[in-house]
Amino acid sequence: MKKSVLVSSIVLGVIGVSGVVGGSVFADDTQTQTTNATAALTQPGTTPGGSDNLKLESAPTFDFGSQELSGTGNTFDKAATVTGDLTVNNIGNTSGWNVTVARSEFLDGSTTLKGADLKLEQGTVSATSSDNTSTAPTTMLADLKNTSAAPVFTAAAGNGIGEWKDVFAVSNASLYAPAGNVAGSYTASLTWTLTNAPA
Question: What sequence ranges are listed for the domain WxL (predicted)?
Fold first, then answer.
């Protein structure tokens, strides 16, 4: 990643003038000048060889392990493991941003887990850098009853600048499988999409 940062020098001119008139010294005849300190900060992608200034760096996977079916519907109220965090790196983009997540059908070969409902509760938001001064983005419940995309992590215009993580604990994920499904090893794909506008 190419990063261009131009910082000018800080210059402050102070001129002290004292005069001698008739043998007396006038030390309070002081003159000052005020100058500016400037910095030109550019975003990656605005110079040749730069990269995009808004990136979806990583996304989590959820594994519910092995669960027993019952004849009355099954709620698996937490994942067995969560691997990875949802990470957005926003290097100076001020238009806001939004991450949505969509799932495919849960399949075991050609067998579908009918009526599945995957819920991702609000995770914990944190900045990668502890001294980040931007207003944090927000996380929200994504209820994936079907394959439609749902917003999960968003920043209003001017917020969410820098690198931010939405960290999911195992208790933030739950899966419901209605009665009438058959045993199998089911897998669904999660598609995470980042756009440069708030939800």
Answer: 42-198
